[in-house]
Amino acid sequence: MVAAIFFPVAAYILVRAILPPLSGLLVISGMVEENFRGEKTPVPLGLVFPLTVPVVYAALGFWRRDFSLPVLFFLLFYITGMGFLGLCDDVLKDTGHKGFHGHFAGLTKGNLTSGAVKALFGLGFSLVFAAGVGLWFGESPVLIVPRALVAALAANALNLFDLRPGRAVKIFFVLVFLVLLFGFYLAGGRKTVFLTFYFVLPVIGAVTAYLPYDLRARGMLGDTGANFLGAFLGGMLVLSANSLMLWGALAVLVFLHICAEKVSFTKVIENNCFLRFLDKLGRD
Fold first, then answer.
1. Buried b vs exposed e over 154-188: b needs ≥16 C-beta within 10 Å?
2. Residue 74 near residue 22 (C-beta atoms within 8 A)
3. Which end of the chain has less Cβ packing within 10 Å, N or C?
């Protein structure tokens, strides 16, 4: 019980302590972009997550010996690696190519884009994660491919919505709740180590500390933060060890990415009064 309070509070304090100097460093380094209001905003402020969250979870793994340290290592490798790939995309941003089609079209012409680097190496990191977890749990190798695809697509999912202050973070909270809910009921109420609210609490603490910055447009997640948080969701899905949930998540993620190529999610949200209300809730 003490750890359930200590680690999320520690994550919250750590993120809050690092955000102001990190924001200043990004501004000094020229890492700023115009947001939808035309205001200069430090990007990627979401870098705070790969800098802090893995440390908290490593400490949690040593504290709670009932956590499987090899599996925790694979998870931290995956989410930190995805955050790094997001940072590469933020630094090497190629605005001439949009979406999967644009990046891979450039690749076929011999042009390596930042998005292609993120997609290709992201799939590689996801395969390592899925294979490591599957082998450790003694699962069928057949599940490695769908687990890797879920991990790769989930890491990019929040990027599809990170176009307004606070939107991606709100969706992250909703998706964490849904993954926990479905994981609990599909497992017949059986608690698994990596799908308990206990395990999710530290990242909830970290994201809660960051949320006011995002809502007030004092910083943007960037691909770094969106990739990291999306990868955490992907890690939850892969570690759920439920084939029905896995295939359902894969179908939803594929559908979202196909829609993103053809539909503006911002327009969909703005044309629905309820979604528009939730989207603007808490925003300056």
1. bbbbbbbbbebbbbbbbbbeebbeebbebbbebee
2. no
3. N
Q: How many domains does the chain have?
A: 1
CA distance 23 to 32: 10
Query: Measured between alpha carbons, how far is 87 from 114 in angstroms, rounded to an integer?
Result: 10
φ and ψ of 6, to 5 deg: -65, -50
- For residues 284 and 267, what is the distance between their CA atoms, to the nearest angstrom? 20
Record the pTM.
0.89
Mean pLDDT computed over 48-67: 85
Instruction: Indicate whether 227 pLDDT > 70.
Output: yes
What three-state secondary structure class fits 224? helix
Summarize the confidence of residues 43-57 as an average pLDDT.
Answer: 93
What is the pLDDT confidence band of residue 87, given thresholds at 50, 70 and 90?
very high
pLDDT tens digits for 146-158? 999 999 999 999 9
Cβ proximity of 149 and 248 under 8 Å? no
User: Which residue range forms the structural domain that includes residue 28?
Assistant: 2-280
Q: Is residue 225 within 8 Å of residue 49, measured between CB atoms?
A: yes
Q: Work out the average pLDDT over 176-197.
A: 67
What are φ and ψ of residue 88, in 5° steps? -60, -40
Distance CA 28, CA 42 (A): 9
pLDDT tier, 49 (very low <50, low <70, confident <90, very high otherwise): very high
- Range list of H helices, the chain: 2-28, 48-63, 69-91, 99-108, 114-137, 144-157, 167-186, 197-215, 222-238, 243-262, 265-270, 273-280
